[in-house]
């Protein structure tokens, strides 16, 4: 058992050494900054520590067993330094591994896709509604595709060579809403109405919930592709006319939530894939 653990530890160690070297080559400036600040930090710690040691020595020398305690502490410190010096590579690898794990914990954590709405505020849900939402989320977690029952009376459909989407649309763009399907901005237009119908969705988020990968292939849409919105037994067909990438700031929000007198559809999600740095949007005009 011990031999097996040693082998696994060696493999993990080699993996993190490779990762460390790759990161060091790709981001040399960042590593130099960390090194510089690290040295200054340790110098300050060292001077502060030396002052504390001097004060402790002065205090202990006044007592009977002070010298013996000082000798014991010095031996312990020297031994501790030797251990650190011998295993400094392992310690640095452990620090790097810890940072790596924390990064992925953050990466797989909840990230809100929706841009902040300009007009209106969303009302607080009651406790009963929240429990209903949690139950639906738990059911969706074990499924990889939406069923006909999940789609309901308000849903989106895209059927092209590269993009296949069938997902329900809910009113709201909070994380709890986007875990049930695509989210419609409440303050924007409804299907078929004059104005901008804005729909948001996750591109990729950890888990088996199909809502978390509803827009994973959205970037494969092109001009001329058709998008169907099913609403209360009516089908509204839109044609893609433009696309773009914006930052999730005031300018980006205004572009996505663009007001118009014509009936248009705006679909948007995070980009690049697996990040939430920017927003990819597609604009479509109503044709049927």
List the helices and strands and how they pair.
Elements (H helix, E strand, L loop, with lengths): L1 H25 L1 H34 L4 H21 L1 H21 L18 H15 L6 H4 L2 E6 L4 E8 L3 H4 L3 E3 L10 E6 L25 E6 L2 E13 L3 H7 L6 E9 L6 E9 L2
Parallel strand pairs: 2-3, 4-7
Antiparallel strand pairs: 1-2, 1-5, 3-4, 5-6, 6-8, 7-8
Helix pairs in contact: 1-4, 2-3
Written description of the protein model:
45% of the residues lie in helices and 21% in strands. By secondary structure, the chain is α+β, with helices and mostly antiparallel strands. The chain folds into 2 domains: 2-108, no CATH class; 127-286, Sortase, Chain: A, CATH 2.40.260.10. An 8-stranded mixed barrel has the order 1-2-3-4-7-8-6-5. α1 (2-26) packs across α4 and α2 (28-61) runs antiparallel to α3. The longest helix has 34 residues, at 28-61. The radius of gyration is 29 Å and the shape is elongated. The N and C termini lie far apart (68 Å). The model is unreliable at 118-133 and 136-142 (pLDDT under 50).
List keywords for this structure.
single chain, 288 residues, alpha+beta, Sortase, Chain: A, 2 domains, 8-stranded mixed β-barrel, 8 helices, 21% strand
Radius of gyration: 29 Å
Elements, N to C (H/E): HHHHHHEEHEEEEHEE
Helix content: 40-55%
Give a short account of the largest sheet: 8 strands, mixed, barrel
Count of discrete domains: 2
Report how far apart the termini are.
68 Å
- Secondary-structure-based class equals alpha+beta
**Overall pLDDT score:** 77
In CATH terms, the superfamily of the largest domain is Sortase
User: How many beta strands in the DSSP annotation?
Assistant: 8
| Poorly predicted runs of 5 or more residues | 118-133, 136-142
């Amino acid at each position: 058992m011990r031999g097996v653990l040693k082998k696994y530890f060696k493999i993990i160690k080699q993996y993190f050494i490779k990762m460390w070297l790759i990161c060091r080559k790709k981001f040399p400036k960042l590593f130099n900054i960390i090194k510089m600040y690290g040295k200054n930090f340790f110098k300050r710690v060292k001077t502060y520590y030396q002052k504390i040691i001097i004060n402790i020595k002065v205090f202990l020398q006044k007592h009977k067993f002070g010298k013996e305690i000082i000798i014991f502490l010095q031996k312990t410190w020297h031994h501790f330094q030797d251990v650190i010096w011998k295993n400094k590579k392992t310690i640095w690898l452990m620090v790097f591994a810890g940072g790596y794990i924390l990064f992925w914990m953050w990466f797989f954590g909840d990230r809100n896709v929706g841009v902040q709405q300009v007009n209106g505020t969303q009302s607080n849900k009651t406790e009963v509604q929240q429990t209903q939402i949690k139950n639906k989320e738990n059911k969706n977690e074990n499924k990889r595709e939406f069923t006909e029952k999940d789609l309901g009376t308000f849903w989106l459909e895209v059927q092209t060579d590269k993009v296949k989407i069938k997902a329900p649309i809910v009113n709201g763009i909070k994380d709890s809403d986007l875990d049930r399907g695509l989210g419609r901005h409440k303050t924007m237009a409804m299907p078929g109405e004059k104005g901008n119908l804005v729909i948001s969705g996750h591109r990729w988020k950890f888990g088996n919930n199909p809502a978390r990968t509803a827009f994973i292939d959205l970037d494969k849409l092109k001009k001329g592709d058709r998008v169907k919105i099913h609403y209360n037994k009516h089908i509204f067909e839109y044609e893609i006319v433009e696309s773009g990438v914006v930052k999730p700031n005031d300018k980006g929000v205004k572009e996505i939530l663009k007001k118009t007198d014509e009936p248009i559809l705006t679909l948007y999600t995070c980009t690049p894939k697996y990040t939430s740095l920017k927003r990819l949007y597609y604009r479509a005009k109503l044709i049927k």
